[in-house]
Amino acid sequence: MATSFLPAQLDRFRREAKKLSRELSISHNEALDRVAVKNGFPNWSLLAKHSNRASSPPVGPQVTLPQLGNCVRYYLHGDIRESDPTKCFCARCDTFEPFTHLLPVSYHTDGKDGERFLRDLASWDGLSTEQKKYEFRPADAPNIVAASALAARAAREAARSPFHRWLDGQRDRNDPVGDLAAEIRRDASFPIALATKRELEKHLKRYGSHVIKAFRQAWHEFNGGERLEWTLADALAEELKITRDEAEELVDTEPLELTGHSGDGAYGYEFDFTDHASPKLAAKLMRKRRSLTLRVGPWFFDGIRHPDFPR
Question: I need a surface site. Which of 152, 183, 197, 229 has the fewest CB within 10 A?
Answer without folding.
Answer: 229
